[in-house]
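Fig. S4 source data, part A: sequence.
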Amino acid sequence: MDFHEAIVLTHDKWKHDVAGIPQFSLLLATARDISSEGFDDDEVLLLRVEGSAPLSLESDLLAVREESLRTALSQYDSPSPAVVLDMGLDPFTKNRVSFTGLRCRVLGTFYESIVDGTTRLEFGADVDNFYATSTYRVLKPVGKGLSAVASYIKPAPTKEPVDMVRIGTVRYSSTRRRAQAAGQDDAAVQVNIHDFIGNKTGMFGMTRMGKSNTMKTVVARTQVISQLAVKAGGRPIGQLILDPQGEYANPNQQDGTEIAAIGEDRVVIYRFGGAANASNVRPLGINFFDPGQLDVAKGFVSSSLSESGADYVRAFVNADFAGTPRPGESTKEGYERAARADRGRLMLYGALAKADFMIPTKDPVDTQYPWRAWVSMKDPVADAIERDLPGALFRPARKGRVGVNRDHLVDVCQWFVDRAADGSMVNTDGFNSFVDGDPYKSALPIFSQMNGNRSVSGYTKLKPLAPFHHPDSKSDFRDQIFDDLVDGKIVIVDLHLGPLAVTRRMSEGIASRLMERQTETFTKGVEPPRIQVVLEEAHNLFSNRQFTDELDVWVRMAKESSKLKIGLIYATQEVSGVAHEVLANTKNWVVAHLNNTKELRNLGQFYDFEAFAEAIISQEDRGYVRLKTMSSPYIVPVQIDPYGLELVNEARAAANDPALVPTSAA
């Protein structure tokens, strides 16, 4: 033995009696106080089995085993396994060859200390001495003893909150036959749930290896703590789940239940689509006819059109429909840019109306006024429209800008198409400039379904987007999400139905507003609300490339989350895809199966995950993880409990809601 490693001498019978010693088993080595005659242990060393170790006479013992097998195989024509195993060894020799060595890493020392008159169990991550004499006894903890070792947390120097909750059971190996037969597969592992609140937690592993199940378990446990905090007069904990695959927002056959089962008053789901049947489901729609939401609307339209790859689609993607002034522009140039954007939006609105998008009835900014498509238009053009389409325009006293009434939107757009085709308005002041702008010309094929002399799909490509349109949607739906979080609700943003480019932009918008609101509170000298954020595909958000952009919202969140009371729980298949700055500040690690050595090399830079590398790459059992939490001083191999009705009912009980019963028992 030395300060880092111990060789444990064991025997086949002893291993059999304790149902085996799998790799990574936790063992306790006790040493008697050599200065006294007593047998009380003054400290206990914690060991982890790393592999086998050769004994000093290993080569001689191996030769004896080999010769005995040769003799047994030579003496019998068809030797049975029993005969070969017996080998005809004399009892003394057989006993000697049954000894083997276990190579163990010394994880540290358990010992007692007295703090403020109270005796407590401490753990030091090393040893302060070791004896050369054989004064150590090595024990394999099982049951409650193993649970106590696996669930041990370091005593906090200050009065930090501690709430221990079960997360799974100790699991040393993929093969569990002996552990199950001996009843040693149920040693509970508990964690301090506060380790996950306000800190960074990384969930690493391949798809279908249980990352989402672990996340759901943490979410449910956090909800319990939130409810208990409210009952005690404290502040709740809001939880935001950005759900790109819809696996949190919808029922899952693997779980037998869903997060929403925790309660409609405590779980809110935002999703694209039509009206929801449940009171806690709110539309994550946008108003395609609101200039304030134009950027997101254009992203939807661009994604829907992108499959065709036509030149008019590229023109639409590059066109400026916002008309925002640019640095260095003159006042006139800024006005002309805004006017071109108005006219392009008019034609886009017409295409949306033809694609059966419901036109709003109220102005999105001031709802006391009806919705109109406001556009810059010279009087001669407006006069001509009113002659042909009476009641189509609203013309306030201010010249140069008119509102196209909703009932005449398509008619006015078609009027411009027809007049440009027959040439009857080419000499009218203001007409040519109206139809010549890039935004107008890029939206024209979508409305008219003609690109030059060629027919195109145009607005029919927009019809699948209609479910994402809500005419009453406000641009500040992100504030509603924030308010729900402040109230301690679990907010699931279901993004699996939207185009990738749009859902990415929407996720960034939600995160950006969250950061803004938390920062506003923080800069006022007030402690921000406690909020947890759950993120999938973190390698797309926290990559090294992203960290070169200081303005990126995910980079800002990763750097500032701690002071803003935002806890991050992120999942990824790629340890290497997450920037070192994020990994280095990750307090909790949940590592499932990874399938390549590159990821293991990156993982091996943190704690002592390198010791588990071969097991992580070879064992593909769902929910089997190596767990390192902020309060735990060492890594524990854990089989995570499945998320199910028991966890749901625990969260419901904390809120004084009645328990749910299994469907089969209803």
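Fig. S4 source data, part B ends here. The longest strand covers residues 99-115.
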